[in-house]
Amino acid sequence: MYRRIIGGLATAAAMAATVLVVTGTPANAAGTGTGYLHTSGNKIVDSTGATVRLTGINWFGMETDNKTFHGLWANNPWRSQIDLMANLGYNTLRVPFSDDALKPGAQATSVNTASNPDLIGLSPLQILDKVVDYAGQKGMRIILDRHRPTSAGQTALWYTSGVPESTWITNWKSLAQHYAGNPTVIGADLHNEPHADGTNPNATGSCWGCGDQSRDWRLAAERAGNAILSVQPNWLIFVEGVSCPSGGLSNIWDNDTSNDEDCGWWGGNLTKAGQFPVRLNVANRLVYSPHEYATSVFHQNWFDDPNYPANMPAIWDKYWGYLYKQNIAPIMVGEFGTTLASNIDKVWLQELMKYMGTGVNGMSFTYWSWNPNSGDTGGILKDDWATVDQAKQSIISPYLIPPVGDNPPVSPSPRVSPSVSPPVSPSASPSVSPSVSPSSPGGKTCTATYKVANQYPGGFQGEVTVKAGSSAISGWTVKWAFPNGQSISQLWNGTLSASGANVTVTNLSYNGALGAGASTMFGFNGGWSGSNGVPSSVSCTAS
């Protein structure tokens, strides 16, 4: 369904954007396997044949007038947002975009130059490149989602008069070549939410298996998927469903029940995929990707069933789950979300997570959304783009398989405009503090490393990496004293207690337990004046 997006939209101006081939290798990605991925029955497996489960999140914005990720206007820098995603356990990032963002001269807008100085002047594709590179360091995977032909809105068909099918396919092939050799980017979600339009028998929307070349989404998915695989045979091809297999809405007024049918969510109806499967020229590359939503998007009649929620597994089986249960193909639920304003929705989310299964053998998914500004679902983040909505996260968290990657590198000092304030002299203080690991009960130890990740006049963003010692720990407490009267205005990924210059941060429920040598990170925004020296020592106590 079309979801209202709140705030942050801006007009675009011209800026050059060149498509080049980007090659590279991600960091050790044990949480999402190694190398490129392929399929085996209903499983997604890595280059060694090990089963992989994608448990991800959607970060939208590149499909809108901004042409880049929303939340880049916030005080929480983009790298810190990806750090938080990974620490919460999301191992995959689904990135919606529109063809407008790929045009020569496309310009990214609404970027906070204080918190994201390294994005100044970059094109949408160049920003995406940086996100891909950093997500790969975290061990995450990227799925690219062609969300809309233009930033104006979603469309029932995969093409418009202004964006023909040829443009759609050409852009996909360019992206596949652009990320050739970089297995952080694992595949293409061909078109978001193809759906019905027109009233039967005069259907004009996307059908499945109807045989009409201009409307049969199954045939279009084959054309685009095979074109992509011709230049990048290693990618997975993610194919969404339709809403009504006929491509038209039921006409309940014509007294003809033959053209009435059971329709589902936009992109969520794969009832005909068993009879009319997508046929790709490269074997073991197809993943079906339905969408599923709660009452905050639309109040479907099945929510009123007296047997709710016991009726839901049969509904999911009918629309898409059968493909997984019959070992036909993997399922990756590309979007599902809710505001949780209704208890019906809370039950729905709990039951859907159970239905998709636990552990590495469960169905893959990417939750909608990271963004708080999705009008009818909200996000995992709250409006400050830093605080986690624990009500949602607590339901999803048991099903997440965290990525395993390198620790985040020390970020260079951000560029500060000389017209605002001269940059702080690098000789004034070190950017990283020493770490002290006091003795802990049972011989458990941890270390904490403090760094200034970004600094600008009057404010800064800090990060602290907590690392377990040679034994696993179940919790941690970090303490330090600010040397120059700094203060913290907001903190994420931990619980803050502060008294004057003295700061104490303890773990949250989801990031306290660390295996031997494993690490996590918390971040904060703070204020300073005069100087911004780092603490002389930072202690970490493990439990």
Describe this structure in words.
It is a single chain. The chain contains 7 helices and 22 strands. α3 packs parallel to α4. The strands form 5 sheets. An 8-stranded parallel sheet has the order 9-8-7-6-5-4-13-11, with helices on one face. A 5-stranded mixed sheet has the order 14-22-17-20-19, with no helix packed on it. It has a 4-stranded antiparallel sheet with strand order 15-16-21-18, covered by helices on one side. It has helices spanning 78-88, 124-137, 165-178, 217-231, 312-325, 343-356, 390-396, and strands spanning 38-40, 43-45, 51-52, 55-58, 92-98, 141-148, 185-189, 236-239, 286-288, 291-293, 332-333, 335-337, 364-367, 435-436, 446-456, 459-468, 476-481, 487-492, 495-499, 502-506, 519-527, 538-542. The relative contact order is 0.13. Helix content is 16%, strand content 20%. With 543 residues, the chain is of the alpha/beta class. β15 and β16 form a beta hairpin.
